[in-house]
């Protein structure tokens, strides 16, 4: 299990726009369609990564708690499906339904969106404010497969609470750790 950290896109970066196919609804969705009233969480995940599998229910829990507070959520898989067929759009649809994702699960076939966000690993999380300026990037929490720390979503929850309450987030932002994005060769 490779341990790849986030690259930590600079705070204040404007969210790169995209239009990708949602594997569940089979419709194209853009950032402007998915943007939340108060903020937006963009997550790079995949089906097979043990780090993502470990936090899946935590991601669902955070989304369920914050969607009603005006935060939009979207998950994107950018993995090479030729070499990693378990991450194919058909399997993404099955996975999203099985996990109960309350957010769209988009397929980045060209990998251009992952490159635009400088995404490096799964999970890689980004929080943008209402004007789509980056205010948080990094980990869900300190839990990793096998380290015995429960999945709480504390880091992401704190960032979202600060956003909603219009407070500065003075906590250090730690990179996420996960499997590297499976780039096409």
Structure notes:
The chain has one domain (4-180): Glutaredoxin, CATH 3.40.30. The model has no long low-confidence stretch (mean pLDDT 96). It has a seven-stranded mixed β-sheet. Strands 1-10-7 form a three-stranded antiparallel β-sheet. The protein has helices spanning 31-34, 50-67, 89-99, 112-116, 154-164; strands at 4-5, 19-22, 28-30, 39-44, 71-77, 105-107, 121-122, 124-129, 134-138, 177-180. The protein has 185 residues and is α+β, with helices and mostly antiparallel strands.
Order of helices and strands: EEEHEHEHEHEEEHE
Low-confidence residue ranges: none
CATH topology: Glutaredoxin
* CATH architecture assignment name: 3-Layer(aba) Sandwich
Radius of gyration: 15 Å
Strand order of the largest sheet: 3-2-6-5-4-8-9
Alpha carbon gap, first and last residue: 20 Å
Largest sheet report: 7 strands, mixed
Compute the average pLDDT.
Answer: 96
* Whole-number tally of structural domains: 1
| Strand segment tally | 10
Shape category: globular
Oligomer: single chain
CATH top level assignment: Alpha Beta
């Amino acid at each position: 299990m490779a341990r790849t950290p986030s690259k930590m896109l600079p705070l204040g970066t404007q969210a790169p726009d995209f239009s990708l196919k949602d594997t569940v609804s089979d419709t194209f969705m853009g950032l402007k369609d998915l943007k939340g009233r108060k903020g937006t969480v963009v997550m790079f995940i995949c089906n097979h990564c043990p780090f993502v599998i470990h936090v899946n229910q935590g991601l669902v829990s955070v989304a369920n708690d914050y969607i009603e507070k005006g935060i939009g959520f979207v998950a994107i898989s950018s993995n090479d499906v030729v070499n990693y067929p378990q991450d194919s759009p058909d399997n993404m649809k099955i996975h999203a339904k099985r996990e109960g994702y309350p957010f769209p699960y988009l397929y980045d076939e060209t990998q251009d969106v992952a490159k635009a966000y400088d995404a490096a690993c799964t999970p890689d999380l980004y929080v943008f404010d209402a004007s789509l300026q980056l205010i948080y990037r990094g980990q869900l929490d300190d839990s990793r497969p096998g380290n015995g720390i429960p999945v709480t979503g504390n880091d992401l929850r704190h960032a979202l609470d600060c956003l909603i309450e219009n407070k500065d987030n003075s906590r250090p932002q730690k990179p996420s750790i996960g499997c590297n994005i499976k780039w096409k060769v």
